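Work Package 3 committed the consortium to producing structural models of liganded targets before the mid-term review. Because experimental data for this complex are still outstanding, the team generated a predictive model from sequence and the ligand definition alone, so that downstream docking and mutagenesis planning could proceed in parallel. The input record is reproduced below exactly as it was submitted to the modelling pipeline, together with the SMILES string for pyridoxal-5'-phosphate.
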Amino acid sequence: MKEKTMVMIPGPTPVVRSIQEQMGREIQAFGDPRFVKDYKGVIDDLGQLFGCDGKTFVVAGTGTLAMEMALSNVTKRGDDVLIVSNGFFGDRFTDICAHKGLKADVLQAEWGQVVSPAEIEAKLSEKRYAAMTVTHVDTATGAAADIAAIGEVMKKFPDTIYIVDGVAATAGEYENLAEMNIDLLFTASQKAFGVCPGLLLLWANQKTLARRATLGVIPEYYCDFDKWAPIMDDPSKYFATPAINLVWAMQESVRIIKEEGMKTRYQRHLKNARAMQKALEALGFTLLAAPECRAVTLSNLIYPQGVEDAKFRAVLLEEGVIVAGGLAAYAGKMFRLGHMGNIDINDEVAVLSAIERALNQCGHTVPYGKGVGVYLEEISK
Ligand SMILES: *Cc1c(COP(=O)(O)O)cnc(C)c1O
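The resulting structure, written out as tokens with the ligand in place, is given here.
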């Protein structure tokens, strides 16, 4: 294996040097006024960047804990929840509901497609749902839901909390709570923020906080909004030890995002994704996600005839790039490539070039530079 391996799975994503350096800083006490100021700054910046009129939570944990935190603070046992599933992570919500004694109805899209806003509207009209979850980008399929159009539908259902799982989307795809009528959004540090794993981010608007207030004491302890809210207001207070170096790493990520601008960052992801996708199609891959719902943060690529999955990924690793395998019915038939966060043209050229080398070693002959050429043509437009 190469000394240097590019991590191109859909999370963790590459961590740029300036973010990585924050992880190596000398520790400070969580009550140190310097850290308190840094933590507060990150919380406030994130709230502003994503149009949140309520509270922003920055807490140690992964995306899965954020999924649990979301449902725990807006539902009680026996409530009806609508799950809009476009793949593997949508299905995880069903499992969480089962554990929590929530009654889950599932709208399931065929893999590579997304559930339409019209189907969602029809389902919501059947009964009162306490909450609805939508996975913005499902990592298993590479399909992106139209969360803005769904937000329009949600205006007709003010009793339902609109939850968006942004774990493979937030800070790559465009998202804004106020503009899109989203009530609760969450993500994790290791995806499009390009930070090491270990931090969850969760935005709850005023409507969500009002719902939490109606629930009284909830069974969950660590992920209770009421435990964390005073700390988010004043991080010099203690509830549980913050992940200090991760907070600094997130502060640097947020600084990069503010400098780039949210909309510019999305445009960069969009242009890069479409160029990558065109290049990979030119090399013989088929995209699982339909053209009208393709994510900008990752691509799920079905192999050309005759290319064997385990061998391809092993050779690609030898060539210095690690990607993820397909899930469920697509295990062995597809690989998953992340292209989100703080990546640039040079990274992508290197990735495509390694893919070309791996294809040639796996019996699928392609001219060297073919994918790279298509990519550069597109990205230079
Ligand atoms: C990665 C991911 C998760 C889970 O996040 P973890 O940090 O691995 O717990 C949830 N939802 C989506 C859409 C994801 O891509």
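Reviewers should note the following from the model. DSSP finds 14 helices and 15 strands in the chain. These observations will guide the Year 2 experiments.
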